[in-house]
């Protein structure tokens, strides 16, 4: 039947061609030639859509292959459980810094679309968060709250949160890839990858989990401390947020040690 369809594409209805393309991952040179020669506008529209989708899929596959390069190399060196760790919330005026540590399963074929969380739309982040948390070998969260940030500064609080996330992983990893910095106190082989959330799959996955987790925390804080727009700005320094501070003052989750408050 497949050979019959392939040899008779020009005689199929547009709906039949649509169904045929839906069932295909690639077209042979002969199939492509037949469809390109078809004068029907509907066929040309279907073919154009198919080719664009395939090009997008190939681009995503290439991107995923590049993101997995670091993990592949470590697997070849004998490391089995490789964790990526990243944080979210270093820059806001309010709220905690949240870190995530993730051990992905390289045998699963569900990681397409994972990227630096900052490059993803909110809906895509949330969808990928569900995929990662449902399919990873291990996921853990570390949180440094505002009193700790004010006590030891945001840099050290971020390191503390990442260390906590790694310590909570079950099973424990054989190797940890951190975004940007080596983390003191982690008694495991580790590597700091500058810009790792855009270069390394497991760090990118951790960046998504950290960002979505922190956003959920800020939504809860918006209900507890209304008026600052935490549901929209997530604690970052927007014009709306700064005006709210002038009107309402600082909430219990604002970081008192941030220089901007001293300039008010």
Draw up the topology in text.
Elements: H1 2-7, H2 14-22, H3 29-37, H4 41-67, H5 69-76, E1 82-88, E2 97-103, H6 122-135, E3 138-144, H7 146-152, H8 154-167, E4 175-179, E5 190-193, H9 201-224, H10 230-233, H11 239-248, H12 259-262
Parallel strand pairs: 1-4, 4-5
Antiparallel strand pairs: 1-2, 2-3
In short:
The protein is of the alpha/beta class.
What does the model show?
By secondary structure, the protein is an alpha/beta fold. It has 2 domains: 2-67, no CATH class; 82-220, 2-Layer Sandwich (Nucleotidyltransferase, domain 5), CATH 3.30.420. The protein is 52% helix and 11% strand. The protein contains 12 helices and 5 strands. It has helices at residues 2-7, 14-22, 29-37, 41-67, 69-76, 122-135, 146-152, 154-167, 201-224, 230-233, 239-248, 259-262, and strands at residues 82-88, 97-103, 138-144, 175-179, 190-193. A 5-stranded mixed β-sheet has the order 3-2-1-4-5. It is flat and about 75 Å long. It starts with a helix and ends with a helix.
Keyword list:
264 residues; alpha/beta; Nucleotidyltransferase, domain 5; 2 domains; 5-stranded mixed beta sheet; disordered N terminus
């Amino acid at each position: 039947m497949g050979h019959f369809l392939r040899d008779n594409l020009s005689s199929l209805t547009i709906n039949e061609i649509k169904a045929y393309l839906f069932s295909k991952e690639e077209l042979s040179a002969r199939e492509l030639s037949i469809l390109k020669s078809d004068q029907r506008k509907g066929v040309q529209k279907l073919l154009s859509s198919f080719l664009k989708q395939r090009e997008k899929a190939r681009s995503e596959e290439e991107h995923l292959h590049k993101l997995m390069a670091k993990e592949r190399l470590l697997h070849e060196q004998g490391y089995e459980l490789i964790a990526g760790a990243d944080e979210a919330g270093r820059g806001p005026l309010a709220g905690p810094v949240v870190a995530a540590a993730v051990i992905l399963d390289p045998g699963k074929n569900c990681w397409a679309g994972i990227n630096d969380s900052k490059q993803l739309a909110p809906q895509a982040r949330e969808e990928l968060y569900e995929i990662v948390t449902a399919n990873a070998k291990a996921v853990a969260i570390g949180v440094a709250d505002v009193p700790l940030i004010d006590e030891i500064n945001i840099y050290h609080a971020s390191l503390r949160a990442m260390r906590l996330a790694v310590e909570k992983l079950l099973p424990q990893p054989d190797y940890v890839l951190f975004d940007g910095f080596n983390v003191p106190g982690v008694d495991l082989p580790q590597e700091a990858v500058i810009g790792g959330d855009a270069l390394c799959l497991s760090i990118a996955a951790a960046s998504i989990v950290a960002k979505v987790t922190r956003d959920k925390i800020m939504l809860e804080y918006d209900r507890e401390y209304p008026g600052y727009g935490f549901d929209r700005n997530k604690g970052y320094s927007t014009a709306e947020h700064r005006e709210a501070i002038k009107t309402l003052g600082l909430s219990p989750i604002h970081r008192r040690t941030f220089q901007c408050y001293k300039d008010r």
